[in-house]
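Inverse folding, one chain.
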């Protein structure tokens, strides 16, 4: 059942007033009504709203397109509502859902593509936030079922490296959500064929950074191709140095499997 934030505040006031001095409950131990009004939840809702506006301002979404979510503890997620521009959202519009996609709090219906987000969270526990949108250059590659070549810009290699392309399925369906499962552990950036892009990270802001990085890389690659000179790749040994740094930081990259087990050096 959906409940308004005003109603939640009224129902939770007694909980706050009778607190035993040990602080607010953690999301893991909180009931939905309590979790919805935790300070952590309020902060995450504000971050979702900020990132939604960045996506709209950068023209990565149009109409009511795109969706954002973040984990709240281990049992809940906060996600954007359906049928709403990312430019117009306020914290009160953000929905609280369980890991089955059931709305537990909020005035609006959750995004219809929450199944995609849940599939990522279930498959990769490291993922704490997911951003899905339709930046034009990245989506152009998604329309061709292809990716720009890697090994050309160090900043891109450090944060993303190889992306993946998931096959097309009807958005909003379980089949659509499952298209990313073969890729989500080794790739933090996945193109959705004939649709857009989805990125996961430890925070909403960091997931949005990945979107920015990939979109800029696609655009820069297309510009470089117009110069009429051969593209000069980063030497393989220098790519391996970046992979070692990503390995130390715990960042995903399908190429890290090339590193010799225990030696800390590439094959």
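Residues assigned per position:
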């Amino acid at each position: 059942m959906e409940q308004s934030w005003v109603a939640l505040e009224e129902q939770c006031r007694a909980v706050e007033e009778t607190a035993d001095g040990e602080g607010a409950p953690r999301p893991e131990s909180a009931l939905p009504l309590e979790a919805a009004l935790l300070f952590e939840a309020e902060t995450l809702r504000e971050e979702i709203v900020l990132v939604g506006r960045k996506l709209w301002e950068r023209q990565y979404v149009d109409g009511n397109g795109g969706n954002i979510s973040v984990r709240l503890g281990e049992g809940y997620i906060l996600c954007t509502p359906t049928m709403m521009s990312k430019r117009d959202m306020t914290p009160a519009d953000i929905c609280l859902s369980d890991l089955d996609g059931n709305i537990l709090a909020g005035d609006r219906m959750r995004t219809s593509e929450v199944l995609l987000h849940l599939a990522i969270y279930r498959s990769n526990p490291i993922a704490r936030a997911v951003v899905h949108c339709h930046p034009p250059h990245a989506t152009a590659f998604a329309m061709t079922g292809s990716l720009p070549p890697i090994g050309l810009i160090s900043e891109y290699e450090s944060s993303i490296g190889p992306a993946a392309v998931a096959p097309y399925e009807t958005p909003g369906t379980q089949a659509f959500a499952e298209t990313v499962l073969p890729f989500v552990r080794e790739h933090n950036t996945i193109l959705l064929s004939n649709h857009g892009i989805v990125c996961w990270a430890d925070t909403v802001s960091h997931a949005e950074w990945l979107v920015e990085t990939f979109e800029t890389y696609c655009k820069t690659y297309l510009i470089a191709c117009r110069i009429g000179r051969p593209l000069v790749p980063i030497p393989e040994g220098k790519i391996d140095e970046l992979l070692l740094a990503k390995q130390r930081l715990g960042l995903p990259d399908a190429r890290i499997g090339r590193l010799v087990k225990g030696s800390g050096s590439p094959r």
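The beta strands are 67-72, 76-79, 95-98, 103-105, 129-133, 164-166, 189-192, 196-201. Residues 38 and 110 are 20 Å apart (CA to CA).
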